[in-house]
From TrEMBL:
It comes from Phocoena sinus. The gene is TSC22D3. Its main location: cytoplasm. Residues 81-95 have a biased composition (Basic and acidic residues). Coiled coil: none annotated. One of its GO terms (cellular component) is nucleus. Residues 74-110 are annotated as: Disordered. This is TSC22 domain family protein 3.
């Protein structure tokens, strides 16, 4: 006697079709969610890029200001002051720690 399954093969075909439709619907929802995440990340990255560009602009401006100030101070300083300053920056010889000279009346220590 041949084996006869206790079910109808057409029953599984209907389930396969329904299952296939739900898989497609699930794939569509996953794709929509991924698009939403991608859009959110792109927005966040663009926003961060704008913030960083502004910070770069501010730093470039501050750097230019400090370079102008440095040039002005160099032109106003005496050769002795510049030499003393350069010796403190020299990595070969660390400058000895000496107390600062008090400010002269009516003058300033530069």
């Amino acid at each position: 006697m041949a084996f006869q399954p206790p079910y109808s093969p057409s029953l599984f075909r209907k389930r396969d079709n329904a299952s296939g439709a739900s898989v497609v619907a699930l794939d569509n929802k996953i794709e929509q969610a991924m698009d939403l995440v991608k859009n959110h990340l792109m927005y966040a990255v663009r926003e961060e890029v704008e913030i960083l560009k502004e910070q770069i602009r501010e730093l470039v401006e501050k750097n230019s200001q400090l370079e102008r100030e440095n040039t002005l101070l160099k032109t106003l300083a005496s050769p002795e002051q510049l030499e003393k300053f350069q010796s403190r920056l020299s990595p070969e010889e660390p400058a000895p720690k000496t107390p600062e000279a008090p400010e002269a009346p009516g003058g300033s220590a530069v």
